[in-house]
Design a protein that fits this description.
The complex is a heterodimer.
Chain A lengths: L8 H12 L9 H17 L15 H4 L13 H10 L5 E6 L2 E2 L13 E5 H19 L5 H9 L4 E5 L9 E6 L6 E2 L2 E6 L4 E9 L7 E10 L4 E9 L5 E10 L4 E8 L4 E10 L5 E10 L4 E10 L5 E10 L4 E10 L6 E11 L5 E10 L4 E10 L3 H9 L4 H14 L8 H10 L9
Parallel strand pairs in A: 1-5, 4-7, 5-8, 6-9, 7-9, 8-10, 9-11, 10-12, 11-13, 12-14, 13-15, 14-16, 15-17, 16-18, 17-19, 18-20
Antiparallel strand pairs in A: 1-2, 3-4
Helix pairs in contact in A: 2-6, 7-8
Chain B lengths: L1 H11 L13 E3 L6 H10 L4 H15 L23 E3 L14 H10 L5 H6 L1 E7 L2 E5 L2 H6 L3 E4 H7 L1 H7 L10 H9 L4 E5 L8 E7 L10 E6 L4 E9 L7 E3 L2 E6 L4 E9 L11 E11 L5 E8 L4 E4 L2 E4 L5 E10 L4 E4 L2 E4 L5 E11 L3 E10 L7 E11 L4 E10 L5 E10 L2 H9 L4 H17 L4 H15 L5
Parallel strand pairs in B: 3-7, 6-8, 7-9, 8-11, 9-12, 10-13, 11-13, 12-14, 13-15, 13-16, 14-17, 15-18, 16-19, 17-20, 18-21, 19-21, 20-22, 21-23, 22-24
Antiparallel strand pairs in B: 1-2, 3-4, 5-6
Helix pairs in contact in B: 2-3, 3-9, 7-8, 10-11, 11-12
The chains are: A alpha/beta, B alpha/beta.
Organism (chain B): Aromatoleum evansii
Family (chain B): Belongs to the iron-sulfur cluster assembly SufBD family.
Pfam family, one (chain B): SufBD_N
């Protein structure tokens, strides 16, 4: 079952939808079918974003629009797939593996979960909890761009996590999304609901094959109850020819705490939109990120921290290391709504350019509608400090090692707050400084 | 803060002090815009053919454009056919030869505004090229400047007396295709100031122009062109006040600065046009395109602005850093009170090697005011060693105002260093308390703190302006503390 391969992206999806829709999860659930149909109408109206959209000013998706992608109906369990999963697995996690958009229990690894914690496939959950999920979907599907609408129409599976009040999920949940073939489009969708006082750690991990083009279009939605705590790590290691478009949106309840880490290493064009809404009093949001680009990679992060209620605190630090002809885009938006008094927001974006051809476009953005606030942001773009290099070289460290050391030190800040040991080790191994040019 | 708030309200609700209207016999063209109106303007001004052609090209291009809506400002739609595009105070045909010939009504208006046009000008050392509505009525110190080879005159005179200079430089920084409002200006601009500083000349005095908007319903479209030739220096002051008016007035000016090798231009503005009343009724729409071109090496252009007026300010004084080692600066204080909206900032386009730019922006919002900083720092691949430092601070006075920051940073050269910092906070209660506990009234304390907040910008202003700016801010802000 393929989307007509000769057609480029937008008409291809439009024409494929009617045939595909009856076979997508929840097709028998009327409200869900309606959600998908409406999303398809929105996609037909919106199309893919262009550089005329302010949010996509620096990121052209023409390379995606030109191609035709197919949707995988079934999964082939090859040896390479097993090898790939074991390479990316992390010990001590509750692992769910999704291959080409479909949950594969055989590759997953369940850990004992406390009572009141439901962690499973969204497609399966819909059969058992359909009514419960409706409100969640309606809120999640306020698609503002074509990719979000596409995901809402075509999503095939993803994680459904539902934690009752007070449940502390000690074991991190590792959601591993594997794409196996070229020209596939996969649409994972994760819905995570964490009840009052409950806590969870989620690792959303995207990997794919090298050398072939495919499209991953992911939506993750997280709802935090009163006093809930969620640590979400997005680890993007798509193949260097892959296209990756992801949205993470959190809605925070009173006194809740949301921690987001975003690490972007792969993809030829990777875009992550990470947003949180501090919807009740006393929320705390901590966003950090690291993007490392080389070759002709284009890596885009759009974050939005919406202080919609009083006494919220947010901290944000994004760092980028760009080599060769890589290009990074960072847009950090902080909104303080009217009456969100006593908000306290700090934001920082720092970029390191290592080559003549690298480029950074950064836009930290503050929109303040209340007066009793403390907000600050900063952005820097620069190169390695010549004095620091000189210092190291004067102590007998070769230029390559000195550069590697400084790059690594610059990037390592982004690991602060990662508590899970195996994840930390994994991330350390991925940090630049092991970059070939600096080795 | 209860008592402070009351005082603040009093201060905030102060009426516009410069709101008086001088009935003058205006020589206006009919409302609306068409090729005929443009031909009429050009004919009235007895312009050479190249000017008319340029205006018509701009007009034809304007017809293909649509009004931009990306700024965070809101206003009812503007009817461009309901504007009188030209009005000139009637003089004695050939224009006044001396102050004695100037309409006494006009002189009285300037007097009320404190324009040092007579003896005071000598004391102040200011040469004033006063633009009253659209035609230059008096120019002073011309002889002294002329002896140095400096040309400082109204735009119409420049077109008449120095057409070669005008033809060479007009539109070379802001082309007639630039943006909706600049294109409109190119088609219909009535007058403005022209300044040329010959090579190696350091202009011995601050050049100054007071722009006023007077005749009812006359949009004012001035055009300023300043050229500093090799090694020249000039400091130029532009100050504005406007009488109270009920209908919104469109103001779309264009300013072009050209600095050649080693030249320096310092351009300072105090803008205090009518901001509308307490309910947000009326006020000037100030949609201005200002751009400087550091065309050759080692040149410097510095913009300093104090924006306290206008219902809407839409203004991004920019510098194109083309020459190697050239320097661009932008210092700004923008204040919005009542229902004023400001979307202002700068663009620093680094093209040459070792170019440097500094941006210092201070935004103050009170009442329902909305204040946005929107800036672009662009480092092209060619701009090795470019350096930028940006600081944007916002101060909020009152819980219904807004402050936004939209800095765009685009870097394509790894040797560039770009830093941006911004902060937003309200006036510190501890600072207020400190002052008040030492017997300083809430109002004075606020004034003190705000002037401290703006000090870095004010110190960039020439002395005459610094005094006026302090006063303006005091008037606009007194009592905004709450």
């Amino acid at each position: 079952m393929r989307v007509a391969p000769a057609e480029p992206c937008v008409p291809g999806f439009l024409s494929a939808y009617p045939a595909l829709a009856p076979r997508l999860p929840g097709a028998a659930v009327p409200w869900l079918r309606r959600c998908r149909d409406e999303a398809m109408e929105r996609f037909a109206a919106l199309g893919l974003p262009t550089s005329r959209d302010e949010d996509w000013k620096y990121t052209s998706v023409a390379a995606i629009a030109r191609r035709a992608f197919g949707v995988a109906a079934a999964v082939d369990l090859s040896d390479e797939l097993h090898a790939m999963v074991s390479r990316h697995a992390m010990v001590g996690t509750h692992r769910m593996v999704f291959v080409d958009g479909h949950f594969v229990p055989g590759l997953s690894q369940a850990m004992p979960l406390p009572a009141g914690a439901w962690v499973g496939s969204l497609a399966q959950a819909l059969d058992t909890r359909a009514v419960d999920a409706e409100a969640f979907f309606a809120a999640a599907d306020e698609a503002t761009d074509g990719f979000a609408a596409l995901n809402a129409a075509f999503w095939s599976d993803g994680a459904w996590m539902d934690l009752a009040a007070g449940v502390a999920l000690e074991v991190p949940v590792h959601l591993l999304f594997v794409t196996t073939r070229s020209d596939l489009a996969v649409f994972p969708r994760n819905l995570i609901r964490v009840g009052a006082g409950a806590s969870a750690t989620v690792i959303e991990h995207h990997v794919g094959p090298e050398g072939v083009a495919y499209l991953g279009d992911t939506v993750t939605r997280i709802v935090l109850g009163r006093g809930a705590r969620v640590a979400h790590t997005k680890l993007q290691q798509e193949g260097r020819k892959g296209f990756h478009v992801a949205a993470v949106a959190a809605e925070q309840g009173q006194d809740s705490s949301f921690v987001s880490h975003a690490f972007a290493f792969g993809g030829q064009l990777a875009r992550a939109a990470i947003a949180t809404r501090l919807g009740a009093e006393g929320c705390d949001a901590r966003l950090s990120g690291l993007y490392v680009g080389s070759g002709r990679q284009h890596i885009d992060h759009h974050t939005c921290i919406d202080h919609a209620s009083p006494r919220g605190t947010s901290r944000e630090l994004y760092k980028g290391v760009l080599d060769e002809a890589a290009r990074a885009v960072f847009n950090g938006r902080v909104i303080v709504r009217p009456d969100a008094q006593r908000s306290d927001a700090l934001q920082s974006n720092r970029n390191l350019l290592l080559s003549e051809d690298a480029e950074v476009d950064t836009k930290p953005q503050l929109e303040i509608w209340a007066d009793d606030v403390k907000c600050a942001h900063g952005a820097t773009v620069g190169q390695l400090d010549a004095d620091q290099l000189h210092y190291l070289r004067a102590r007998g460290i070769g230029e390559g090692d000195a550069r590697a050391l400084l790059i690594r030190a610059f990037a390592a800040d982004a690991l602060a707050g990662i508590e899970h040991g195996p994840l930390r080790v994994r991330l350390e191994s991925l940090l630049p400084g092991a970059l070939p040019e600096a080795a | 803060m209860g008592k402070g708030s009351v005082q603040l309200d009093e201060l905030i609700s102060q009426e516009y002090r410069h709101g008086f209207y001088t009935p003058l016999d205006a020589d206006a063209v009919p409302r609306g815009l068409s090729e005929d109106v443009i031909r009429l303007i050009s004919a009235k001004k007895q312009e050479p053919a190249f000017m008319l052609e340029w205006r018509l090209k701009a007009f034809r291009h304007w017809l293909t454009m649509s009004e931009p809506h990306w700024a965070t400002v809101h206003h009812p739609p503007i009817d461009y056919q309901d504007i009188v595009y030209y009005s000139a105070p009637r003089g004695k045909g050939d224009g006044p030869k001396s102050l004695a010939e100037v309409d006494p009504e006009l002189l009285r208006t300037y007097e009320k505004l404190g324009v040092p046009l007579q003896e005071r000008e000598l004391l102040a050392g200011v040469a004033v090229d006063a633009v009253f509505d659209s035609v230059s009525v008096a120019t002073t110190f011309k002889d002294k400047l002329a002896s140095l080879g400096i040309v400082f005159c109204s735009f119409s005179e420049a077109v008449r007396d120095h057409p070669d200079l005008v033809q060479e430089y007009l539109g070379s920084v802001v082309p007639y295709t630039d943006n909706f409002f600049a294109t409109l200006n190119s088609a219909v601009f009535s007058d403005g100031s022209f300044c040329y500083i010959p090579p190696g000349v350091r202009c011995p005095m601050e050049l100054s122009t007071y722009f006023r908007i007077n005749a009812k319903n006359t949009g004012q479209f001035e055009r300023t062109l300043i050229i500093a030739d090799r090694g020249a220096y000039v400091s130029y002051l532009e100050g504005c006040t406007a009488p109270m008016r009920d209908e919104n007035q469109l103001h779309a000016a264009v300013v072009e600065l050209i600095a050649r090798e080693g030249a320096e231009i310092k351009y300072s503005t105090v803008q205090n046009w009518y901001p509308g009343d307490k309910e947000g009724k009326g006020g000037i729409y100030n949609f201005v395109t200002k751009r400087g071109d550091c065309r050759e090496a080692n040149s410097k252009i510095s913009w300093t602005q104090v924006e306290t007026g206008s219902a809407i300010t839409w203004k991004y004084p920019s510098v194109i850093l083309r020459g190697d080692n050239s320097v661009g600066e932008f210092h700004s204080v923008a204040l919005t009170n009542h229902w004023q909206q400001a979307d202002t900032g700068t663009k620093m386009i680094h093209l040459g090697r070792n170019t440097r730019s500094t941006i210092l922006s201070k935004g103050i919002s009170a009442g329902h005011g909305s204040n946005a900083y929107r800036g672009l720092v662009k480092v092209a691949k060619s701009a090795a060693g470019a350096r930028n430092y940006t600081q944007c601070d916002s101060l909020l006075l009152g819980d219904r105002c807004a402050a936004h920051t939209f800095p765009y940073i685009e870097v394509k050269n790894p040797t560039a260093r770009v830093e941006h910092e911004a902060s937003t906070s309200r006036i510190g209660e501890d600072q207020l308390f400190y002052c008040q506990s030492r017997g300083i009234s809430a109002e004075d304390a606020v004034s003190l703190i705000v002037s401290g907040f703006c000090k870095e910008v004010f110190k960039q202003l020439p002395m005459e302006f610094a005094v006026e700016a302090q006063k303006l801010l005091g008037v606009s802000l007194e009592g905004s503390i709450g």
